[in-house]
Fold:
Amino acid sequence: MSASNNINITLKVWRQKNAQSKGQLESYDLKNVSTDSSFLEMLDQLNEELINEGKSPVTFDHDCREGICGACSLYINGRPHGPGNRVTTCQLHMRSFKDGETIYVEPWRAAAFPVIKDLMTDRSSFDRIQHAGGYVSVNTSGNTQDANALPIEKENADKAFDAATCIGCGACVAACKNASASLFVAAKVSQYALLPQGQVEAKDRVLNMVKQAQKEGFGPCSNTGACEVECPKGISLENIARMNREYLAASLSK
Amino acid sequence: MSEAKGLIKSHTVKKYWMAATGLFLCIFLIGHLAGNLQLFMDGYEGRLQFNEYAVFMTTNPAVKLLSYLTYFSILFHAVDGLVITINNRKARPQGYAYSKPGENSIWSSRNMGILGTVILAYIIVHMQNFWYIYKFGTTPFMMSEDGSSPLLKDGTVVKGGSIENGDVVMAGENLGPAMRDLYEIVIQGFQEPLLVAFYVLGMIAIAFHLMHGFQSGFQSFGLKSGKYGKLIDKVGLAYAIIVPLLFAVIPVYLFMIK
Structure:
């Protein structure tokens, strides 16, 4: 175990009063930040100082702080969830930064993710995409069938599970030069497309979810692959390929 | 189709069109390259073969059909690409103050619109250089090996014939259009170093465009997955390097040998 060090950093944080106001980057010097603290704990430290100074604290999304809820976001030093791969911002630690470093902290940027305040964006567009088809209709008759009664090929079960690990954080959108939600939609389409339970509504699902994503203002997919690199859960581009196949087949037959 | 407008309105469908036209143009490039490689043959035989090939390419009905398909693909790819680029920009009205896109994607993939614009400019100049001159301009004519007699388009040497208004005439009788000497136009054209440089630059733009575009087309159709995914990446990279390189070598070679 290496001993914890304290570092001093300069933060350039996006401050924006509300959705209507313009917003700008503001600079804060933060001293004695433990390298063992998470990025969110560092922001907590900043906020305590701001509150003590009688200033408005920085608003940012967070919830579970263990990398599974998808609430934390933040575009840190030019990348979603900061440097390193396969981590959410709550899993990012200050040991990833150097003493004296300047760190840029910005909200996700997308027409479909409008800023609510400071670093917090409205990601309800993702919810509406889910509502458009990201479910399986199950009759709750009172004698629900055992889930394991349906045999499912191991390979497909694994792939469906991998797709289902998407936490809906929006890093894919933040990373994409077109603010496209393709990886998110593809994960949500794939987790059902690979399972027998998902077949009944498969065509409507892909058509409606893709349509909703476009309606929300997410951009087209340029296949740059930035999303896959930045996804904290490592959702594969193969899901986008699957979504494109499903969409083509559904468009031609529906 | 659930809705007729779904044929073009959807982002995904626009990408299908992009992929279909782009991949068709990849096939076209192979054919075009095969034709160009004939320029490596020198001497009278080489000249005759290239000029006969030029006649075939401008008169054969099947080639004509393919050429219309090619023009359509280029124009559709350009217009569709422009619309997509506009939509790309719309989705992020406010950009990041500090961004490092190089950490997660290759430069080509993020600049297909710019590369496409350069390629379109290249195509326009290229069409003017050869296609327009060959079809509508004043061109030299193909002559028999001893330089005395003109040739008909089918390659027949008309001994004692002369050329009037582009037609072969003998003893007052018009025997039909004379074979033009495209080979000469190409050789002469590439004596100009600036033009050679422009063509090489055009091919570099095409190489970078293909480096992303080839595999991206397969991905748009959902054909990139599993073991084929890696294969498509490899074939795409090889294609993106080899095809433009061979194209670019020709003007450089023609410039060097004269």
